Amino acid sequence: MLKTIINNKKEIFYTFKVPIFFSKNEIRKYIYKRYKVTLYKINTIIYYSKKINKKTNKGIFKGRLKKRKKVIIKLKRISYLKKEKICQ
């Protein structure tokens, strides 16, 4: 999912989710190949799995959510990316 964030300095950032094994260089190459834009900055955030407890009719379900990786990118020039799914 691609989201656009605009801060007070009129800078545009894009955020999306990628597979956990993607490195920053792979993300940079993928974005350039897909959208033909050069990136100024890449920040990655790894969300670790979280415990969940759910009460159902059959009893209590205990489990964990998967690890996720979120990427925040800033482009060199002001340009806009098409809103479409990058990775699943």
From TrEMBL:
The keyword Metal-binding does not apply. Keywords: Ribonucleoprotein, Ribosomal protein. Gene3D superfamilies: 3.30.70.330. Transmembrane segments: none annotated. GO terms for cellular component: ribonucleoprotein complex; ribosome. One of its GO terms (molecular function) is structural constituent of ribosome. One of its GO terms (biological process) is translation. InterPro entries: Nucleotide-bd_a/b_plait_sf, Ribosomal_uL23-like, Ribosomal_uL23/eL15/eS24_sf. It holds the Pfam family Ribosomal_L23. Belongs to the universal ribosomal protein uL23 family. This is 50S ribosomal protein L23. The gene is rplW.
